[in-house]
Amino acid sequence: MISRQDQIKKIAYLVPFVAVSIGLLIANNAWLAIILYHLGIGVFLILGKQGYRARELIMGGKLLPILLAIISGVASGVILLAFAKSIGVPNNLAALLAQQGLQGWGWTLFIIYYSFVNPFLEEYYWRGYLAESTKGITLSDICYAGYHPIVLSRYLSWPWLILEFLILLGVAWAWRQIAQRYGGLIIPVITHLAADLSLIIAIYILIQK
């Protein structure tokens, strides 16, 4: 018999898909999407009684892995800037972002919120609450990677969306293995933060051109 907590966890995997579908595909509003996503994360962390995991966010850190995490995260934005034209980033990127509520002060606040809040919540959720202790690819890896193509569907063609999914699937797996190896989430959090910040700064630079 499936326990109540297992039933809650099964539904928890759907949170980003519901939030992104409502926020971006229906309302076309990035703020609505991320707020729904983070509220969903909060609800399921509470329902799943995951408060005790908060300490894991600052555990599992060693100097060299943390430095490598920062470098690898920052590389994400550098790669985007270098290959933006090759992967078909649209010329009207600024207009597309503006349609989703990302312009002016709203865009600046989104950069800050996305960069410094999202990494903590996502690692708490995907590599903490929903993570499984296995060497193979898991449902949490697939679902984490799987919602991102929906987010980027208006910006990239499907071959690049598939590649992005595969890269993030590998990233999700790697972050989960790192969290298990070092006994905490701080390295995945720092890598995630560096990646999110560098990517969104790269996007900001691209729309200024």
Q: Termini separation (Å)?
A: 58 Å
Radius of gyration in whole Å, from Cα?
17 Å
Q: Quickly give the structural class.
A: mainly alpha
Overall shape:
globular
- Specify the helix fraction band: over 70%
Give the total of domains.
1
The biggest beta sheet reads:
none
Oligomer: single chain
Order of helices and strands: HHHHHHHHHH
Tell me the number of helical segments per DSSP (H or I, 4 or more residues long): 10
Low-pLDDT regions: none
Overall residue-averaged pLDDT value: 95
Count of DSSP strands:
0
β-strand percent reads under 5%
Task: Note down, in words, how this protein is organized.
The protein is an all-alpha fold. The protein has one domain (54-208). The chain has helices spanning 4-12, 15-26, 30-47, 63-83, 93-99, 104-116, 118-129, 139-151, 158-182, 186-208. Helix 1 (4-12) runs antiparallel to helix 3 (30-47), helix 2 runs parallel beside helix 8 and helix 4 (63-83) runs parallel beside helix 10 (186-208). The longest helix is centred in the last third of the chain and has 25 residues, at 158-182. The chain is globular, with a radius of gyration of 17 Å. The model has no long low-confidence stretch (mean pLDDT 95).
